[in-house]
Amino acid sequence: MKSKNRQKKIINSLRQYVGIFMVMLASFFLLLTITSLIPSNMLKENIQESVKYLNTIGERQFIPLKNKTEQLFIYTDELMLNTAYSIDSSDPIYSFMTAKRNYVPGKTRVIYEDEGKIIPSDSQYGSYPLNQQLELTVNGEIDEAFEYARYWHGYLIFLKPLLVLFSYGTIRVLSTVCFLLLVLWCSYLIMKKINFFTSMAFIIMLLSTYIPIASSSLNEITCYYIAVVACIILLLRKKEKMSIPIFFFIIGGITSFLDLLTNPIVTLAIPFIIVFLQKQQERDMSWKEELILCLKILASWGIGYLLLWVSKWVLVDILYQRDIIKKAVEQVIYRMVGGETESFQNYSIWDTIKRNLEFWNVSNPIIILILGLLVAIYGIIKNKPWKNKGKLVQIMPYCIIFILPIVWIVFLKNHSFWHAFFVYRIFCIMVFAFLIIIVKIVGMDRKKEGT
């Protein structure tokens, strides 16, 4: 009888996942189709204004701070603007599925398929910066287009309508303002629903890797938007009406839809911490219960992320015979281990971690570590957590999530090395997890009454 009930439960669960997957896939397709119906001439004036602004910045923006110079990768934002303008509203599905840039209807002579490189080596535009390519595109003076079909480019559902109303410079300001408002709302909810110290840990996490500065880079801030919105939903949810694993399945799918492989794991890790804080506040959990929930969340997010991403490859291959599955897998392998022709092939895992730490600025983690350890020593002396097995069980999920950034950097070594100027921001996960461990050890995680 128990075996039959278990089988029935598994089948029902699988049906839920399949149903949600189909709904998400249809929603992604429909949203991009509707957005792609917006004619490019409605964007032209704001794109031209954006080009003037981008010509003053270049492909990287350097922001001098007191103890370091922060970099914003404007290069990808330029690519996003170009892709938005290059959508042909007369053929919306083909346009968003192949995700061309530099495309000018009636003018484009050659279309290069997605071969894993942003600009193919045999293109005459190989030495042209992306802001110059965008200028040539909007002026109708370029005759080669390039596909970037391995990603969904879901950001278009927001970016293209915004470009009808605003130029890139204004959109950057709006992005920063909206993000900071969401952070304030989330911080308030954490303070109200969990406790003040966790709210402070959340804010310190964001400040520790300069994420508010990154909010003006449309590409770099995407995953942090998803993470903060996911936390707000978790904090506002009616607990009995939401399946946590399915929620993370959805978050993983949305991440693959909107992101261009920046820091996707933050959409897993930050809401993960909020979930366990909520669960532990409701009742004491055994180590087995925590481990099972942890594995369910990790698996659900991972399956959602990969399944929705792979579905784009499959659709492109079925509809347009681009052999994108093979090319995308080759790119994944390249992002993991690099290629034979790279100018710097012999970097180790330690080289990659070191490079990310250098972009973070080593003084930041040292200061946080020293202060955290001092507080932890005080808490250990006062509370003697080794005598309280429940306390050790409580910190287990945060210890698991603490090592996630290192696992990501090791797994995608090539990507993490060459893009360390934005990948390093995933260390904010370690900061958040570390601070929560300290809060737990010291005993500052008091339950709020009446919540």
Description:
This protein has 451 residues and is mostly helical. It folds into 2 domains: 34-156, no CATH class; 168-442, no CATH class. Helices cover 69% and strands 4% of the residues. The protein contains 21 helices and 5 strands. It has a 3-stranded mixed beta sheet. β4 (110-112), α5 and β5 (144-147) form a beta-alpha-beta unit. The two termini are 39 Å apart.
Q: Concise description?
A:
This protein is mainly α and 451 residues long. It has helices spanning 2-36, 44-55, 74-86, 92-98, 130-138, 156-165, 168-193, 196-208, 211-214, 218-236, 244-258, 266-282, 287-320, 324-337, 349-360, 363-383, 389-402, 404-411, 413-418, 420-423, 427-442, and strands at residues 60-64, 69-73, 100-101, 110-112, 144-147. 69% of the residues lie in helices and 4% in strands.
List descriptors.
globular; 3-stranded mixed beta sheet; 21 helices; two-stranded antiparallel ribbon; mainly alpha; 69% helix; 451 residues
Q: Tell me the Rg in angstroms.
A: 23 Å
Structural domain tally: 2
In what range is the share of β-strand residues? under 5%
The portion of residues assigned to helices is 55-70%
- Molecular shape: globular
